[in-house]
């Protein structure tokens, strides 16, 4: 049994900030004691003086190796989880995909095969439900029992992932019975396809038109519709990648009514905008994702939603495609640009910068990036906190270190950074995953296969 002692740091969780020493024993947090009390002995002592000691981040929305638009997300489970560790994230929840005409089990088994033995950090799965039928509904019950407790549906992408209102209602009714949580991509995909066709017919093919056709009102309309369908079904609802002021208003209204409705946003909506989509020489393609980037004025509503808890989680929707050879598939037709941005390595640092910029508090940083995603998806208190009995997923974070985000120095398997040249203060120094150091003083000391599949309980965040 190995014992590691982290001494001298400021321990920050969603609920507390305390100067304390942290004892790790056999992969778990064994105890906390007053800083400098010499209450513990250990095989290894790590000095965290002047640094934060925080829970490892929980990124509840990633897409490693996702097939999309005739290509695949460029990060494998090996490269993507290694990059996550570099950024202070120690757990991801990725999306297994059911293809139309196939079972949920086939999709889940395929994702297990991709991830097993390849991950640097721990991982779980959500299940994308693309084909609602009697067999699928029965399978949902079985998946909940074995720890896949959340199911994503799409109101967008007709002909690929799209579900109509009847299919959505049936899945929600099932989740109301089995305890699962429906995650919704809320955009009116039928209407968007009309606008895409009309834009291309007018010769509007540049990346910026991706944002113009995927209108904020169509995100808000779909969000409203999803909320009301969930209300009819008596089911909780989690809306992913919320990007627009009007969609936040729909969530706030539902929560004011006492409904179990939750919202997630992502760093790209907090730090990037349609200005990026409009960059010349097809550079805007780097920023094509769905929901799309919005004009900067939407950012204030997202930050406010995070402060008021109308938005509860910041995840990345990490889905990287290289500019060369992948994003370029959409030259001359923005609708063919693979949708997705890299970001799993940047989330914790960007949110720390948000603390320094006055948008959120330090504890709220940990809450939206670690504790609440763990609670939302049935991983708490195993993940998301520093407390006796929790997994020793611990990050020693240097709040004063300055860095410039760049593709030249990041570890994601993609040829550009969405935040190229952005200066931020704060950087990961050392990362433990279940007590094992995977980043040690800015060196990678982990290995593929250390990360294990982690079954989840049902949502622990219901009102």
Structural class: alpha/beta
**Biggest sheet overview:** 8 strands, mixed
Percentage beta strand: 15-25%
Q: What is the overall shape?
A: globular
Percent of residues in helices: 25-40%
Q: What is the total tally of β strands? A: 18
**Average pLDDT metric:** 97
Note the total helix count: 13
Q: What's this entry about, in short?
A:
This protein has helices at 77-86, 104-115, 134-145, 165-178, 189-201, 208-213, 216-233, 245-256, 267-271, 274-277, 299-308, 347-356, 362-376; strands spanning 3-12, 17-25, 28-34, 44-47, 52-55, 57-62, 67-68, 71-72, 89-97, 122-128, 150-154, 181-185, 237-239, 261-265, 313-314, 394-404, 423-433, 436-439. The chain is an alpha/beta fold.
List keywords for this structure.
8-stranded parallel sheet, 23% strand, alpha/beta, 18 strands, 463 residues, 8-stranded mixed sheet, single chain
Task: Summarize the SSE layout with pairings.
Layout: E1 3-12, E2 17-25, E3 28-34, E4 44-47, E5 52-55, E6 57-62, E7 67-68, E8 71-72, H1 77-86, E9 89-97, H2 104-115, E10 122-128, H3 134-145, E11 150-154, H4 165-178, E12 181-185, H5 189-201, H6 208-213, H7 216-233, E13 237-239, H8 245-256, E14 261-265, H9 267-271, H10 274-277, H11 299-308, E15 313-314, H12 347-356, H13 362-376, E16 394-404, E17 423-433, E18 436-439
Parallel strand pairs: 1-4, 1-5, 6-9, 9-10, 10-11, 11-12, 12-13, 13-14, 14-15
Antiparallel strand pairs: 1-2, 2-3, 5-16, 7-8, 16-17, 17-18
Helix pairs in contact: 3-4, 4-7, 7-8
């Amino acid at each position: 049994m190995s014992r590691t002692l982290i001494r001298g740091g400021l321990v920050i969780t969603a609920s507390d900030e305390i100067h304390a020493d942290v004892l790790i024993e056999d992969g778990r947090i064994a105890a906390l004691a007053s800083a400098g009390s010499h209450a513990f002995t250990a095989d290894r002592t790590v000095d965290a003086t002047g640094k934060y000691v925080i829970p490892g981040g929980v990124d509840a929305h990633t897409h490693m190796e996702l097939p999309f638009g005739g290509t695949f997300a460029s990060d494998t489970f090996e490269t993507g989880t290694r990059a996550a560790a570099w950024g202070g994230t120690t757990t991801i929840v990725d999306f297994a995909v059911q293809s139309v005409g196939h079972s949920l089990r086939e999709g889940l088994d395929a994702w297990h095969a991709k991830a097993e033995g390849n991950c640097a950090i721990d991982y779980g799965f959500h299940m994308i439900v693309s084909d609602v039928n009697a067999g699928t509904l029965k399978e949902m019950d079985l998946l909940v029992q074995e720890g896949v407790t959340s199911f994503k549906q799409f109101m967008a992408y007709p002909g690929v992932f799209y579900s109509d209102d009847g299919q959505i209602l049936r899945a929600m009714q099932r989740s109301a019975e089995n305890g699962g949580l429906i995650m919704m991509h809320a955009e009116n995909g039928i209407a968007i396809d009309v606008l895409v066709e009309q834009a291309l017919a007018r010769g509007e093919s540049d990346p910026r038109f991706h944002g113009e056709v995927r209108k904020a009102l169509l995100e808000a309309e779909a969000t409203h519709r999803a909320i009301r369908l969930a209300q009819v079904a008596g089911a909780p609802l989690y809306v992913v990648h919320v990007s627009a002021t009007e969609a936040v208003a729909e969530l706030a209204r539902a929560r004011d009514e006492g409904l179990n409705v939750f919202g997630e946003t992502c760093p790209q909506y907090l730090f990037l905008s349609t200005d990026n989509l409009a960059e010349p020489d097809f550079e805007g393609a780097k920023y094509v994702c769905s929901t799309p980037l919005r004009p900067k004025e939407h950012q204030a509503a997202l930050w406010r939603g995070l402060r008021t808890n109308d938005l509860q989680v910041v995840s990345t929707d990490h889905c990287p495609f290289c500019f060369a050879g992948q994003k370029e598939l959409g030259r001359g037709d923005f609708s063919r640009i693979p949708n997705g941005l890299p970001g799993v390595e940047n989330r914790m640092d960007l949110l720390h910068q948000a603390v320094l910029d006055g948008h959120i508090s330090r504890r709220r940083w940990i809450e939206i990036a670690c504790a609440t995603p763990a609670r939302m998806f049935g991983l708490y208190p195993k993940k998301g906190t520093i407390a006796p009995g929790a997994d020793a997923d611990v990050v020693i974070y240097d709040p004063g270190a300055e860095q410039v985000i760049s593709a030249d120095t990041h570890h994601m398997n993609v040829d550009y950074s969405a935040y190229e040249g952005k200066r931020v203060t704060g950087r990961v120094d050392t990362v433990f995953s279940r007590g094992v150091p995977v980043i040690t003083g800015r060196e990678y000391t982990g290995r593929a296969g250390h990360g294990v599949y982690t079954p989840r309980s049902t949502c622990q965040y219901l009102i």
